[in-house]
Automatic annotation (TrEMBL):
Source species, domain of life: Bacteria
Source organism of this protein record: Paractinoplanes atraurantiacus
Protein name per the record: Uncharacterized protein
């Protein structure tokens, strides 16, 4: 079970450059996504939440943050069968 984001975490998203911060446990989360995307929904979702989680075994590669579009292209094309690509600042 994933913990539900608390209000302070949701409210801090825009301060760190997020356009929107959502609580996935919110019953109208999908509606909020549709509203924010003018009905298109999401093609990709990125979770930059803090905490100590071990992902190293699932990292397929690392790219510089400036190459984010290339990372999305690789994921979309399934190039190299990626599981998780890490963007490095």
């Amino acid at each position: 079970m994933c913990p539900v984001p608390r209000e302070p975490e949701l409210g801090s998203g825009p301060a760190f450059g997020a356009d929107l911060a959502l609580d996935p446990a919110d019953p109208i989360c999908a509606t909020r996504v549709k509203e924010a995307t003018r009905g298109r929904g999401l093609s990709y979702a990125f979770d930059f939440a803090g905490g100590r989680v071990e992902f190293s075994r699932s990292v397929s590669g690392a790219l510089h943050l400036a190459d984010a579009a290339e990372a999305v292209r690789r994921l979309d094309a399934k190039e190299g069968d990626p599981i998780r690509l890490v963007l490095v600042p």
